[in-house]
Amino acid sequence: MTEPQPVVELRGITKRFPGVVANSDVNLTIRAGEVHAVCGENGAGKSTLMKILYGMQQPDEGTIAVNGEQVRLRNPQDAIRAGIGMVHQHFMLADNLTVRENILLGAEGLHGIGRRAKARIDELAEQTGLNADQDALLESLGVADRQRVEIIKVLYRGAKIVILDEPTAVLVPQEVEALFETVRSMQRQGFTFIFISHKLDEVRAIADTVTVIRRGTTVGTADPKAISSRELAEMMVGSELPSPETRESTVTDRAVLRVTDLRLAAEGSTRAVLDDISFTVHAGEVLGIAGVEGNGQTELVETIMGMRRATGGTVELVEADGKARDLTRLGTLARREAGIGYIAEDRTRHGLLLTQPLWANRILGYQTREPVSKGQLLDIAGARRDTERIVADYDVRTPGIEVPAAALSGGNQQKLVVGRELSGDPVLLIASHPTRGVDVGAQALIWEQIRVARHEGLAVLLISADLDELIGLSDTIRVMLRGRLVSEADPATVTPQELGSAMTGAEEAA
Ligand SMILES: Nc1ncnc2c1ncn2[C@@H]1O[C@H](COP(=O)(O)OP(=O)(O)O)[C@@H](O)[C@H]1O
Ligand SMILES: [Mg+2]
């Protein structure tokens, strides 16, 4: 059998940003009809390479050939004309438009709003398994369907080569399986996929070929079925990985966070977004909250942090002497000052000021405390010194502490946030999706830091959509469904599939 033709050949691609070489002499060959995984740590340069292939960024050096012919992709329109489409890591959809409007938005020649467009969208909806009408407002769709809309958008424009940038980061296992089914069936129809991921089991499940990128350079290309996950992981991080540690409980009977009958009504309605939530987190304990996004987890965290006002119930922090301190009426800063570290779900909205230098981000939320403030004044030198410490201790890859947070990759931004939130001896850490969209290296580091802090007596409330993370870190898991804590699982024995069923309420129905 002859090898299928290369449909895309990237040769010697180099892309520099101020202070960072994002891609350095990268070579990548994609063959017709394959699913080609591109793997690498956070900040390795995967998204940059894909943006170059999608015409969103221009390489400083190197060439791109599509179907054997050298091309210049000056913008996404050029890429689309060459048959290349990209589904971004962060969806680029408008909530207040319908499914159809989102698909047609920006498409060449909007003349198609007629019957032909509708029929074509129906066909693509069927192919991708979209569970929504094309007249439905996007805001009524779940994450998996939003992703399908993104994919349809790309197919509608005629893409034959589809780039999926970390598509599974936002999905639960059942949804990942559905996505893979779609990918496989489209592969049979002749589509080619470039699949960006750092989850090795997924790469093994879906990819025909895997190319590993480390620190901007191609490390190698392999058949994922012929090499072990460990070998793959070592290609990615370039060193021996620590063995998975054995579980050792550090849970004490000293309560730290006590939430009692917490209620939150939806704005302008009596529907409960949080419905009589009660739980306790103890010193040395990680309490994990599992749930499909949109079941009240975000509101729970924001109510505990004082960003939303509870309509009933209490949030108390129990001090070392056993006295409970009621936080229910306090603002966010006061709650932080009481000893709560907070890793926000969306670091770019609540965790960081992207345009500000790293050292200024060290001050966020800590402006009243040492070492970044002295008396009533900010201590800029102290903030700078402590930022240098975090950069070193948490392996934040950056050209320096003066660069804006925006210049860091997501994983390095997150390491900065985690380092800051574990500074100043918190008694409680609220960790909301602490490793979302982060590579194996950064993830391992963040997990390790949370474990160390727990060992030293930190109480942790962990909210995550990553079931491996929940199972790996938690001492107890509670499942949240429609604003209530509905069931409890033992992380030592529960499987991701069982958790997934509890999360979707399949268990309740059964
Ligand atoms: N627009 C940009 N400006 C400056 N630096 C960038 C930009 N985009 C990416 N980088 C840097 O390039 C490197 C690679 O980033 P990226 O391609 O997003 O990695 P990955 O997708 O593998 O996580 C990172 O160090 C990141 O900070
Ligand atoms: Mg990326």
Give the topology:
Blueprint: E1 6-17, E2 20-31, E3 35-39, H1 46-53, E4 61-66, E5 69-71, H2 76-81, E6 84-87, H3 99-104, H4 115-128, H5 143-156, E7 161-165, H6 173-188, E8 192-196, H7 200-206, E9 209-214, E10 217-222, H8 229-237, E11 255-265, E12 272-282, E13 286-290, H9 297-304, E14 312-318, E15 324-326, H10 332-337, E16 340-343, H11 347-351, H12 358-363, E17 373-374, E18 377-378, H13 380-393, H14 410-421, E19 428-432, H15 440-455, E20 459-463, H16 467-473, E21 476-481, E22 484-489, H17 496-504, H18 506-509
Parallel strand pairs: 3-8, 3-9, 6-7, 7-8, 13-20, 13-21, 16-19, 19-20
Antiparallel strand pairs: 1-2, 1-4, 4-5, 9-10, 11-12, 11-14, 14-15, 17-18, 21-22
Helix pairs in contact: 4-5, 13-14, 14-15
Bound molecules: adenosine-5'-diphosphate (ADP) and magnesium ion.
- Total count of helical runs of at least 4 residues: 18
Proportion of residues in extended strands: 25-35%
Bound ligands = adenosine-5'-diphosphate, magnesium ion
Q: Assign an overall shape.
A: globular
Using only CA atoms, what is the Rg? 24 Å
What is the CATH H-level superfamily of the largest domain? P-loop containing nucleotide triphosphate hydrolases
CATH class identity of the largest domain: Alpha Beta
State the distance separating the first and last CA atoms. 49 Å
- Sheet with the most strands, sense and barrel status: 6 strands, mixed
The average pLDDT score comes to 90
Work out the count of structural domains: 3
Low-confidence stretches: 241-246
Cross-sheet strand order for the largest sheet: 6-7-8-3-9-10
CATH topology category name of the largest domain: Rossmann fold
Q: What share of residues is helical?
A: 25-40%
Strand elements, count: 22
Name the CATH architecture of the largest domain. Answer: 3-Layer(aba) Sandwich
Quickly give the structural class.
alpha/beta
Main location: membrane
Subcellular location: Cell membrane
Pfam family, one: ABC_tran
InterPro entries: AAA+_ATPase, ABC_carbohydrate_import_ATPase, ABC_transporter-like_ATP-bd, ABC_transporter-like_CS, P-loop_NTPase
